[in-house]
Design a protein that fits this description.
39% of the residues lie in helices and 21% in strands. The protein starts with a helix and ends with a helix.
Length: 131
């Protein structure tokens, strides 16, 4: 299974010149902790809730609080390998890129969900049936 099979889309994104409070509001509205930052169609960085809250001054721009993600992957990246990397580097969410454009985001939960659909022993209900 590949990252493209586990990723979430459509994406909620912000631009580097948006206000951090706007990004934090979007994260609250959609139940997210991280958003990709795009300039036009090009992936730039990510912004987190914690980053928005650390911003100096009354109303910083996203570009002042954004950061480079610890990991990014391509659409064809293996999800089992991705899960190992996410666990090793303590990353909760990873942008999926295609030719410099962000096409999705993958969380650890997304990866586990995708892997469990491929493994009949991990499917919900299997444990109850065979408990």
């Amino acid at each position: 299974m590949k990252a493209v099979d586990a990723m979430v889309r459509p994406l909620v994104t912000v631009g580097p010149r948006d206000f951090a409070r706007h990004a934090e509001g979007l994260m609250d509205d959609f139940g997210l902790t991280m958003l990709p930052v795009v300039d036009g169609n090009t992936f730039v960085a990510v912004v987190t809730k914690a980053g928005c809250r650390r911003g100096e001054g009354g109303s910083p721009k996203v570009e002042q609080v954004m950061a480079q993600p610890a990991l990014t992957v391509g659409a064809g990246f293996d999800v089992a390998t991705l899960f190992e990397a996410m666990t090793r580097y303590e990353v909760l969410c990873v942008p999926v890129l295609d030719d410099g454009r962000v096409i999705g985001m993958v969380t650890r939960l997304d990866v586990l969900r995708a892997m469990s659909h491929d493994d009949p022993h991990l499917r919900v209900g299997h444990a109850a049936e065979h408990g």
